[in-house]
Amino acid sequence: MHFFSVPSTIQRLISSCTWRKEGQGKVIFLTFDDGPHPEITPWVMDLLAPHQIKATFFCVGENLSKYPDVAKKLLTNGHRIGNHTMHHIKGWRNRNSDYMMDIENCENEIQKIQLQLDQEAEEVKQHDAGTEIINVQSNIAGPKTTSKRENRKLFRPPYGQIKPSQIKLTKSMGYEVVQWSDLSCDYDKHLDCGQSLSALVKNAKPGSIVVFHDSEKAENQLKQILPKYLEAMMAAGFTFETL
Ligand SMILES: [Zn+2]
């Protein structure tokens, strides 16, 4: 038995989390959890690129530290990266202090990636200018890839499991806690992909937040479902945005 959507009663009950984002027109928010992965994440990017589709990737810190170049490519291609803890841990099973520490460690990895990108952009700028004078003004403004990062940090709890006290703490650290309205269940190797696809298409509404996984466990299912899902959504007049 698979649950491809989250009942609105649950969404209302835990209203301190973001489950969907309405009011922006016929927009779907695609999210990919558990990456980056050296092959699957680029496969997703290649699939999205011809349609200029931008998505949000909730990355695991230890994967960011293993594959920083993939993460950099996500940002330079206009996608967003959100925090999915350092070690993909369950909120319900961890003390708040340990949970918050794991979130912070993941955040450090995200910031490392961003810092490297900023430095690379600065080097290019200096090279282009043919001068060694550091342009302080443009340094403050930062490159375009950073435009959203100061506004809102995004956090998605692994397995959707988070205690109310952890939601409170996470929000007090400036995070928006993002769950989802629609789940592909692509992580299940025994999934009926046709059933998942038709449920996703049927449940799609303006503002839906949809979860896929750029992980090895989900690869086969993801590759079967995602291309057809994008086609169906585009044919129905939906567009895609980052959170
Ligand atoms: Zn996850």
Notable characteristics:
243 residues; TIM Barrel; two-stranded parallel ribbon; 9 helices; binds zinc ion
- Which structural class matches the secondary elements? alpha/beta
What binds here, in terms of ligands, is: zinc ion
Order of helices and strands: HEHEHHEHHEHEEHEHE
CATH architecture: Alpha-Beta Barrel
Instruction: Identify the overall geometry.
Output: globular
Largest sheet: 6 strands, parallel
How would you state the average pLDDT, rounded? 91
Just give the CATH class.
Answer: Alpha Beta
- Considering the protein shown, what is the CATH homologous superfamily? Glycoside hydrolase/deacetylase
Number of domain units? 1
Describe the structure.
The protein contains nine helices and eight strands. With 243 residues, it is an alpha/beta fold. Strands 1, 2, 3, 6, 7 and 8 form a six-stranded parallel sheet that branches. The chain has a two-stranded parallel sheet with strand order 4-5. β4, α7 (164-172) and β5 form a beta-alpha-beta unit. The chain binds zinc ion. Zinc ion binds at residues 33-34, 84, 88, 158.
Summarize the structure.
By secondary structure, the protein is an alpha/beta fold. The protein has 9 helices and 8 strands. The strands form 2 sheets. Strands 1, 2, 3, 6, 7 and 8 form a 6-stranded parallel beta sheet that branches.
Topology record:
Layout: H1 8-13, E1 27-33, H2 40-48, E2 56-59, H3 61-66, H4 68-76, E3 80-83, H5 96-129, H6 136-141, E4 153-155, H7 164-172, E5 175-177, E6 182-183, H8 193-203, E7 209-213, H9 219-235, E8 239-240
Parallel strand pairs: 1-2, 1-7, 1-8, 2-3, 4-5, 6-7
Zinc ion binds at residues 33-34, 84, 88, 158.
